[in-house]
Write a structure and sequence with these properties.
heterodimer; A: mainly alpha; B: 167 residues; Four Helix Bundle (Hemerythrin (Met), subunit A)
């Protein structure tokens, strides 16, 4: 059990052992970086393929199936196409910013993976304020979007960047607020502590993941919605709404720089998905006690894959939102609900001291009602605040 | 290594700070904003050298993330050509330099008088999140709450100003 569980840690130690003791910390750091980049780089290639395949199946078509067996080599073909395309920079563009924007998007995103625990003893650094570090490096993406949109000196790019930044600012608030209950109940900002806090088992050998509590379930859903918007994915992809503004802030990008933007967006998605797994789905812990023998990194990968599939599924299912709907949804629904979720987490904490028979289901239902009723009221208020459906007089 | 990094980050902070307000090559506000981001990031590097990871992360999250993006949002809505054409008046420049010099002298004098760093132990200089939280909610609870009042006032002002039918 422990041999397979710790195999990557063991390989890292052995490889670092070949070097003199003075450079060993450096070597193990480089090995961790190389490992993360290799795994998530491959993951990027596989996800682009899986996304097109799954979308194809859901839309009753095949998806890519020409390059290699079952279209498995499609990412390679895409890479060759992207790298050999001409790199066009508009004549009036701000050349420096135009060049820097894809780098500012892609480089900080890699840093976010440094604090994620991928398995038992498998996180690159243990930061005291790990989760703040995660959000701090994530905030560079807004800057990159601005740089891309502004430096292109093009109306569509600017409108796309403004939409993207308005969306990112609005959804960053519920994203961070939905995380706060987890921090409150785990009592730590360090991701390893948060995973350890979910590592015990309750009756029936079921794990104590945060998602099995009312505030955790609500928090996970809020977090996933906000994460979809933060990574500009459908149904929140109107910054790149091709039917209105060509490709938004990406309009003037081609070739390798476009590929870097693509990479940065997917890596951002992977990072928040890894964070959702860590915060709400118990990190690398097994769902049942009798499944503990399965290696911890397998559980992380399985939950990660399931959430990525969920994102693809949502993309295939929901149509794009309008800008006013999008902003109303965040400020009038998600932000109040995540604030109420904080109070529900506090109620959950205080009712933990209750001692009488059948306390567990009563406590659960009470806290669930505390979040379900505001959900209902806020939803009705939101529907009342929306303008009535448009009447198209020429569409008879 | 530590000293090297300190001088690197300190030099970067000062250099980028100067380039924010007095860039000899361009008067483009976007360039200034970008250098302000670099200043903030190198300040965060200085915090990391002091082992204050929490402060470094918050510095980047709040200033480089939220505040700068709002600045940039405003810049996107402005006509930048007019700003670039504007001339600096000689009198305003002299007065500005004098004011900046005065503030610099004042700060140097205050820092010299305050014996900064005397009696600090290495452990208490470390800004761990737990210590910071305890301080904020016990010794400095009132100032902390008062600052949030300032933010509330700003928020109410914004809501009032952005209402369409202002009577």
């Amino acid at each position: 059990m422990s041999g397979l569980d710790q195999i990557f840690v063991w390989i890292g130690h052995r490889a670092a052992g070949w070097f003199p003791a003075s450079v060993q910390p450096l070597v193990s750091a480089v090995l961790a970086i190389a490992g993360v980049m290799a795994v998530f780089g491959t993951c990027f290639a596989l996800t682009t393929l899986a996304e097109r395949k799954v979308l194809g199946r859901m839309q009753n078509r095949f998806g890519p199936n020409r390059v290699g067996p079952y279209g498995l080599l499609q990412p390679l073909a895409d890479a060759v196409k992207m790298l050999t395309k001409e790199d066009i920079v508009p004549f009036s563009a701000d050349k420096t910013l135009h060049f820097l924007a894809p780098l500012v998007l892609t480089v900080p995103v890699w840093l976010a993976f440094a604090v994620l625990p991928f398995g038992r003893n498998m996180s690159a650094i243990n930061l005291d304020a790990g989760i703040l570090f995660f959000f701090a490096v994530g905030s560079a993406s807004e800057l990159a979007v601005f740089m891309a949109g502004w430096s292109s000196q093009n109306k569509y790019s600017l409108v796309g960047a403004m939409r993207a930044i308005a969306q990112m600012i609005s959804y960053e608030v519920p994203l961070v607020l939905s995380v706060v209950p987890v921090l409150m109940l785990a009592g730590s900002l360090e991701l390893n502590d948060i995973v350890a806090a979910q590592g015990t088992y309750t009756f029936g050998g079921l794990a104590r993941w945060n998602v099995f509590t009312p505030w955790g379930l609500a928090g996970l859903i809020l977090f996933l919605i906000a994460a979809t918007a933060e990574s500009n994915r459908s149904p929140f992809d109107l910054p790149e709404g091709e039917s209105e503004i060509i490709a938004g802030f990406l309009t003037e990008y081609s070739g390798f720089k476009y590929a870097l933007f693509f990479l940065g967006e997917y890596l951002g998605l992977f990072a928040v998905t890894g964070l959702a797994v860590t915060l709400f789905l118990g990190g690398w812990h097994a769902p049942f006690q009798w499944l503990e023998w399965v290696p911890s990194w397998f559980w992380f990968a399985a939950k990660f894959g399931a959430l990525i599939f969920l994102f693809i599924w949502v993309r295939a299912t929901l149509p794009r939102l309008r800008l006013d709907q999008l902003l109303n949804f965040s400020w009038r629904f998600l932000v109040p609900l995540s604030l109420i979720n904080l109070l529900v987490a506090a109620a959950w904490y205080w009712t933990g001291a209750w001692k009488f028979p059948v306390v567990a289901p009563i406590r659960w239902l009470l806290c669930a009602a505390l979040i379900a009723l505001p959900y209902h009221w806020l939803g009705r208020a939101l529907r009342g605040a929306m303008p009535p459906p448009r009447k198209y007089i020429y569409a008879e | 290594m530590q000293a090297c990094l300190f001088y690197l980050f300190a030099a970067l902070t000062l250099l980028c700070g100067v380039l924010v307000i007095a860039n000899p090559f361009t008067r483009n506000p976007v360039t200034s904003a970008m250098f302000l981001v670099l200043t903030i990031v190198s300040l965060a590097g200085l915090f990391v050298l002091l082992h204050a990871f929490f402060l470094a992360a918050v510095q980047i999250l709040v200033y480089a993330g939220a505040v700068m993006v709002l600045f940039l949002f405003v810049i996107m809505l402005l006509d930048l050509k007019e700003e670039e054409r504007r001339k600096i008046k000689a009198g305003a420049g002299v007065l500005g330099l004098a004011a900046a010099g005065g503030i610099a002298l004042l700060m140097i004098a205050v820092i010299r008088q305050s014996n900064a760093g005397v009696g600090l132990k290495p452990a208490s200089a470390e800004g761990s999140t737990l210590d910071l939280g305890k301080r904020l909610f016990t010794d400095y609870a009132l100032p902390f709450e008062l600052i949030s009042l300032v933010l509330l006032v700003a928020m109410i002002g914004t809501v009032l100003l952005s209402k369409k039918d202002l009577k």
